[in-house]
Design a protein that fits this description.
The protein is mostly helical and about 90 residues long. The chain is about 80% helix and about 0% strand. Helix 1 runs antiparallel to helix 6.
């Protein structure tokens, strides 16, 4: 099982690709949704032992993203979120 740090880095990478794709497509709303999803990831990476913060990402930020994002963008995180959930449960 990979650690949360590596999973968050992959979420950041895919999210940046999503934002770039949305921008090239002229979809400013989706690009903003991607940026909103990603902006706290550096703090999550700095505070890997802060369980309440990681719970906030899982229950708050991720859920908010799912409610705002177009499905074709959100589906790109499915495998990473499955990995993150497993890492979260074993922490």
């Amino acid at each position: 099982m990979r650690d949360r740090r590596d999973i968050y880095l992959d979420i950041l990478y895919r999210g940046l690709l999503n934002a770039r794709s949305a921008g090239y497509a002229g979809d400013a709303a989706q690009a903003a949704t991607e940026a909103d999803h990603l902006h706290n990831l550096p703090e999550l990476l700095r505070r890997l032992d802060d369980e309440p913060l990681h719970a906030f990402y899982w229950e708050g930020m991720r859920t908010s993203y799912l409610g705002e994002s177009k499905p074709e963008y959100a589906v790109r995180f499915t495998e990473l979120w499955e990995e993150l959930d497993a890492a979260r449960r074993s922490a």
